[in-house]
């Protein structure tokens, strides 16, 4: 049963990540935490997300907003060490509870047409939040997704910029995680088993990206956020 759940998680999350630019960590991490120890689940997520970003970077390069990307990277540099401290000191159950409530509250605001203006300062702040969430629970996606949705960012720009940012943030976070928390054979064997599923998901996800319009993309975003928030809330209670 565990192996079937693992296969389904990785396959669906890979399709989401490729077609939208987010979704792997948001969907996979809560379920991986059911199957593995926290540090193992986070590291498997980081490895596979990094593989997806590397595989797609050449294709999405033209869609990257390099100004925003630069500020996200700078902001994340401050957030990464904060996240690893949180991971080391705080019970992950309480961390998931807090994050789930924030995700749900902000998603409701977005659905009610709350909008925010993009600015350099906010880019830095969102980068910091994404960095801290990556090293603490392996999920940089929620602040990026909420921010870009709130600024009505076009789907190609959203996907390109977030995937480029993930290439940086996942690489550095994985190194920090391995140094601080250590690693195991389980992490690397499970990641190796998952690779064929990831590549099949890449092919399907790219086809979906080409046919999804902006409105469907936005609705899909809300569904993923609500699902993630509710699931993390239930798991933390």
From TrEMBL:
Membrane topology: Multi-pass membrane protein
Signal peptide: none
Keyword set, alphabetical order: Cell membrane, Membrane, Transmembrane, Transmembrane helix, Transport
Main location: membrane
Keyword match Glycoprotein: no
GO cellular component, one term: plasma membrane
Family label: Belongs to the 4-toluene sulfonate uptake permease (TSUP) (TC 2.A.102) family.
Identification of the protein by name: Probable membrane transporter protein
Source organism: Paenibacillus lautus (Bacillus lautus)
């Amino acid at each position: 049963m565990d192996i079937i759940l693992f296969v389904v998680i990785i396959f669906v999350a890979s399709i989401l990540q490729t077609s939208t630019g987010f979704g792997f960590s948001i969907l996979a991490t809560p379920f991986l935490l059911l199957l593995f120890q926290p540090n193992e689940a986070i590291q498997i997520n980081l490895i596979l997300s990094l593989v997806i970003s590397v595989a797609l970077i050449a294709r999405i390069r033209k869609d990257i907003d390099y100004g925003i990307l630069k500020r996200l990277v700078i902001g994340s540099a401050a957030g990464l060490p904060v996240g690893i401290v949180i991971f080391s000191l705080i019970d992950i159950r309480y961390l998931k509870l807090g994050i789930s409530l924030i995700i749900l509250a902000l998603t409701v605001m977005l659905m009610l047409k709350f909008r925010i203006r993009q600015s350099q300062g906010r880019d830095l702040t969102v980068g910091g939040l994404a960095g801290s969430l990556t090293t603490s629970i392996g999920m940089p996606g929620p602040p990026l997704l909420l921010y870009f949705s709130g600024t009505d960012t076009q789907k190609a720009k959203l996907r390109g910029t977030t995937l480029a940012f993930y290439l940086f943030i996942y690489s550095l976070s994985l190194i920090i995680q391995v140094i601080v928390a250590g690693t195991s054979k389980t992490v690397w064997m499970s990641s190796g088993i998952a690779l064929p599923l990831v590549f099949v998901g890449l092919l399907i996800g790219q086809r979906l990206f080409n046919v999804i319009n902006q409105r469907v993309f936005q609705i899909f975003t809300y569904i993923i956020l609500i699902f993630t928030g509710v699931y993390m809330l239930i798991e933390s209670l």
